[in-house]
Amino acid sequence: MRIKVAKTAGFCMGVRRAMDILLDAANENNDDGKVFTDGPLIHNPQVLEYLEKRGIHVVNGQTDLSKSTVVIRAHGITPTRRKEIEDMGAKVCDATCPHVMRVQSIIKKYAAQGYSTVIIGDKGHAEVIGLLGYAEGKGHVVQELDEIEQLPSMDKVCVVAQTTQDRRMFKEAIDRLKTRYSDCESFETICSSTYKRQDEVISLSKSVDAMVVVGGRGSANTTRLVKICESQGTPTFHVETDSELDLSKFKDFDTIGVTAGASTPNWMIKRVVEKIRSYKVNRYEKLLFGLKSVASFFIGSCTYVGLGAASLCYASTVLLGIQPRVSFCLIAALFIFSMQVLNHFANKEAVALNEPVKAKFYERKQHLFVGLGTAGAIASFILGFALSKSIFFCIFLASLFGIFYRLEIIPKSLSKIIRYRSLEQIPGSKEIFYSIAWAVSTALIPFLGTRKSFIPSLAIAIGFAFSIAFIRAVVLDIRDIQGDRILGKETIPIAIGKELTKKILIALTAAVSVLLFVSSLLGWTTTLGYYLLPCVAYAFGYQYLFQKRIVSEGLLLETIADFNFIFAGIIAFVWKSSHF
User: Fold this and answer.
1) Which of 24, 170, 244, 341 could be 239's S-S partner, Cβ–Cβ 3.0 to 4.6 Å?
2) Using 50, 70 and 90 to split pLDDT, how confident is the model at 234?
3) Count of alpha carbons within 13 Å of 181, Cβ hemisphere only?
4) Looking at residue 465, what is its pLDDT?
5) SS3 assignment, position 183
């Protein structure tokens, strides 16, 4: 079975912006007040459930808003409603979509000039209710074309559309209104992303046997996408989550199209796609599916990244000018393997949001992986102790640090003075400590095992290992930024923004290139430094592929990013073989 996913599926700009504003307000909020939204932020029950867990609630009639922050959702509200909220003592944080703001300003401007307003949209929809508030009592809503004939006589008419309206219906409505009213001003107010989404869905539904539309049933734009698909004569299934999919209904279809409403998060789309993908495959597809399952197990189980740690350890050892030893590589593999596995269970919610397939995989084999992760950590301790006390002490400290990383060390009573109560809450700490763990296990431990005094090559090896691990971690965090923000995690892309983060990664890539070249030139390291430059180019390459959305999702991105560690080991092995 083939699956075609619409490129425009998922959060639109207005929804993403509203979510960012809300989460920023929640992060900045202190214990003196609460954060509310005036109505559901988006029409997606699953996202709203996550927001409730973070203490972000929807305003109801009995809500005490004094000393609180109320976020106006992307749909906007009436001026009267805004004043009511302010009069209740709340701070208003406006997350109205800029496209909706434009429609509000048009209505306000023409209402002041005596125009009556006709809004082509859904009666009772939050955006439409908000727009009517700017019409000075002279607003009318047209949901169906036949309703145009029922409109009263009006001297001057201003016509706008709900920003998520069907473009074809709006054009027809304008033609009819201009025929009926001589003084009629019309404005194209449908959001560009909306009609691009609609145009793509029309094209996609013509090229597939059936369509699946993912999104909340209370979402007007999702419901509209369903109607557009159905209008093309394509069998269409509307689901909120993957659990609603009845795969038996797809038995007669070979190609399935998947799209989603503007308020549907990426992880929901991923879950639906993966569930459909697992159903009804031919022999050739079964073989490919089987191979992919083996690869998924190898990568998802962290065996692949453990192999990467062993390979990077080998490269770092050769870069240091030390004779590689299997024991060093094994300690690195066991330590990184156990760290990755146990972190999956410590970050269950984040994994469930950002990597739903991997989350299910670990959930099914929870006892096995908890046992393997624990065994890996213990084995690295035993092996480290057998080699030297300094290596054991280093591994022990790193593990202890990992345990205390998530503990809230600072008392809640001091939260007004010290914002971050645990190391985990410090912005960027995740990527930095993750990279330190890689540098320690792949570069520092081999150095300690030789009992040498400090040499410049140690700093170079640690810098190289840290950098390529850091680039890998940050790229994956940019991918997972949506889910991390909802869970309140302060990763580097969230703290400083995606664009600045990308510039920092490029600068770091350039700096590592210079470091390797100069260190080899000056004899601080072996000439392997020259030959490791392709690893830096490789890191830049997958950053580029990710930024251009050529490679942007789950298993493939992780596979490509983690191969850089193995690539370093291969280069080091070839270099060493040619020099000895």
Assistant:
1) 244
2) very high
3) 23
4) 96
5) coil
Question: What are the structural domains of the chain?
Answer: 11-96 (3.40.50.11270), 99-190 (3.40.1010.20), 196-281 (3.40.1010.20), 301-572 (1.10.600)
Q: Is 127 a catalytic residue?
A: yes
The CA distance from 70 to 277, in Å, is 41
* Per-position DSSP letters for 93-127, written without gaps between them: EE---HHHHHHHHHHHHHHHTT-EEEEES-TT-HH
Q: How many Cα neighbours within 13 Å face the side chain of 101?
A: 10
What's the token pair of residue 54?
Answer: 């973070």
Give residues with Cβ within 8 angstroms of 457, minimum separation 6. 319, 320, 321, 519, 524, 525, 526
DSSP structure string for 269-328: HHHHHHHHHTS---HHHHHHHHHHHHHHHHHHTTHHHHHHHHHHHHHHHHHHTPPP-HHH
Mutual angle of helices 192-206 and 220-231, in 10-degree steps:
30
**The two structure tokens encoding residue 491:** 């990763």
Structure token pair of residue 404? 């205390």
User: Average pLDDT, whole number, for the chain?
Assistant: 86
Q: Which residue of the set 28, 86, 127, 499 is catalytic?
A: 127
Could you tell me which residues come within 8 angstroms of residue 164 by beta carbon, excluding any fewer than 6 positions away? Answer: 127, 190, 191, 194, 220, 221, 224, 262
Identify each DSSP E strand in 106-196 by its residue range: 116-120, 139-142, 157-161, 184-186
Q: What is the mean pLDDT of residues 207-215?
A: 93
Q: What is the pLDDT of residue 182?
A: 92
User: Where residue 422 falls among pLDDT bands split at 50, 70, 90?
Assistant: confident
